[in-house]
Write a structure and sequence with these properties.
The protein has helices at 9-19, 24-28, 30-42, 72-77, 79-87, 96-113, 118-123, 147-161, 176-184, 207-211; strands spanning 2-3, 46-54, 57-66, 131-138, 166-170, 188-189, 199-203. It is of the alpha+beta class and 212 residues long. It has a single domain (2-211), classed as Aminopeptidase. The structure holds coenzyme A. Coenzyme A is lined by residues 19-20, 136-138, 143-149, 171, 175, 177-178, 180-181, 184.
Length: 212
């Protein structure tokens, strides 16, 4: 297990393409996937990027930390590339997943452009800092052998070391495999009203507090 650098981005993209074969990013291209993770390494984030290796081969990765514009920044930085990808592959817009992600992307950008109304700003409570898990993926031949557990354990250890009391992530509510994995690692679904939006969280209990 080691920290990932820009040298590992091609391998990260390869694992993402295989682990998420139907994601919108995958459908756009391997280049789009590589650029997405490049932004997570180079943007204004506090990122913990971990890779699990089998000799020299990347078996899985986890990107976690505090992200500032993980999606909106990626879209802004790569808008010419992304517009070109879609313009040269208009049939992509016929795909429901791509359309859904494009809508999320548009909302993410417009949210940053719109200033919150005064009343909303006043009502907003400062939320405690949480360690977000942006993405975790294991190359299919390595799945089911404990690599995901190892990666999540290392991400959790990094979060604890940095003093976070809470971890949070968003999973596609239809990703039964992912939800089963998180649940087995004691993550809980966050109650988001009538229709669960895929947010899960895990409280990090301070072991020192437990033992004193
Ligand atoms: C989800 C994923 C990261 C899990 O990694 P993995 O290496 O296969 O998982 P592990 O072998 O470490 O399993 C860890 C635990 O999760 C449980 N688990 C894994 N997949 C599960 C599933 N489909 N249903 C229920 N539990 C599951 C295992 O039983 C194991 O618990 P145990 O150690 O008590 O037996 C991996 O399968 C993957 O990359 N999937 C595709 C991408 C994805 O969905 N990512 C997560 C959502 S963003």
């Amino acid at each position: 297990m080691r920290t990932l650098t820009s040298q590992d981005l091609a391998a990260v993209a390869r694992v993402h393409l295989r682990a998420f074969p139907s994601s919108a990013l995958t459908r756009l291209s391997g280049g789009a996937v590589r650029r997405y993770y490049e932004w997570q390494l180079s943007g204004p984030h506090e990122v913990t990027a971990l890779g699990a290796f089998d000799r020299d081969a990347l078996a899985g990765f986890c990107f976690g930390g505090v992200f500032r514009g993980a999606l909106a920044g990626f879209l802004r930085k790569n808008r010419a590339f992304l517009v070109w990808r879609v313009a040269t592959r208009p049939w992509l817009l016929g795909n429901a997943i791509v359309r859904d992600r494009a809508a999320v992307a548009f909302r993410s950008l417009s949210k940053r452009w719109r200033r919150p109304r005064r009343s909303a700003r006043a009502a907003a409570e400062p939320s405690p800092p949480t360690f977000g898990v942006l993405s975790i993926a294991v190359d299919p031949p390595y799945q089911g052998h404990g690599v995901g557990r190892l990666l999540m354990g290392a991400a959790e250890a990094a979060a604890r070391r940095s003093g976070f009391g809470m971890m949070r992530l968003t999973v596609d509510p239809s990703n039964v495999q992912g939800i089963g994995f998180y649940t087995s690692l004691q993550w809980q679904k966050l109650d988001t009203g009538a229709r669960w939006n895929g947010t899960m969280q895990k409280t990090l209990i301070d072991n020192r507090a437990m033992s004193s």
